[in-house]
Design brief:
The protein is mainly alpha-helical. Helix content is 71%, strand content 0%. Helix 4 (56-78) packs across helix 7 and helix 4 (56-78) packs parallel to helix 12. The termini are far apart.
């Protein structure tokens, strides 16, 4: 007899495929959408509830998990040196559950997907560690020193991310910690934030996503969006 709770979780995972998505432009658009919603709320006469503001913490972490799983999968599927680096992961550090496999947002999945979905994404430290393993470099230092060939607004946004990358990571570290408390503790009274802080978190998240995406294109020379 099937477990109804487990079946519900599987159904939720399948439903999330359409809600979250994995394409960078789509995810970046979501960050901008949620930021616009909060900006509009700030300008209105409405007094937002605590839940309405702090629930964006969950949104940020969910988007990041989706983005980095796809990012690392695409790096690995690109081939050498990324797949060679991924193979250095010891078997005890690679574990993928049946539910995670079901949650892969594709009709078919690749070797890169299997590796990417076996990694941990519980914190920004986890993500930074994954990046170090797959790309053989420190994530923050790479952003700081990367020589981009960009023009216009792309160049301006990227420069802002590079010049403020340590501050961006510090803010997003806090997002992961607050989100953990919000989800796993009740009533999570220690999770306090206001609209201005949340707008800053969303802006930092968007900048990190965009600069990371641009490094991927430059690293691989690929042209098709992922």
């Amino acid at each position: 007899m099937s477990d109804p709770i487990r079946m519900k979780k599987i159904e939720d995972i399948k439903a999330n495929k359409g809600k979250i998505g994995t394409y960078t432009a789509f995810l970046a658009g979501d960050f901008l959408h949620f930021r616009a919603e909060l900006t509009s709320l700030k300008k209105s006469d409405e007094t937002p509830t605590t839940e309405k503001v702090r629930w964006n913490l969950v949104v940020i972490v969910s988007i990041f998990e989706s983005f980095y799983k796809e990012l690392f999968a695409k790096y690995i599927d690109f081939g050498t040196p990324y797949i060679d680096n991924a193979e250095k992961l010891s078997p005890d550090k690679r574990h993928i559950s049946t539910e995670s496999l079901i949650g892969i947002s594709k009709d078919t999945f690749t070797v890169g997907d299997i590796f990417a979905y076996s990694l941990k994404y519980n914190s920004l430290d986890d993500i930074r560690r994954n990046y170090q393993i797959i790309c053989s470099c420190d994530y923050i230092e790479k952003i700081k020193t990367y020589q981009f060939k960009l023009n216009g607004s792309d160049a301006v946004e990227t420069k802002r991310a590079q010049e403020n990358v340590e501050e961006i990571f510090s803010k997003l570290d806090k997002v992961f910690l607050l989100r953990h408390s919000l989800i796993h503790e009740y009533p999570a009274n220690n999770v306090t934030t206001n609209i201005d802080e949340m707008l800053d978190y969303l802006d930092s998240a968007w900048l990190l996503l965009m600069v990371t995406d641009r490094m991927f294109w430059a690293d691989t020379g690929l042209r098709k969006p992922f």
